[in-house]
Amino acid sequence: STKALTGHTLGAAGAIECIICMLMLERKSVPASTRFESLASDMPLAPLDSPIAVNAAEYALSTSLAFGGSNTALVIRRL
What we know:
By secondary structure, the protein is an alpha+beta fold.
């Protein structure tokens, strides 16, 4: 989710996340985690403290789950 980067923009959230996914593929980079405060002791993953390179990534998945069951998933391919 990119909501930590943008906030919740309601109706525009899916479009904004799609654009961010396209930029990540184009730039071959995943942004660092933002607004992260603490990790649960049983959580096996750590947040990203800096952007990471994803040179081999060809696809991104963007999902939007909305009120009332309006759900969408987009698979985006780098050109």
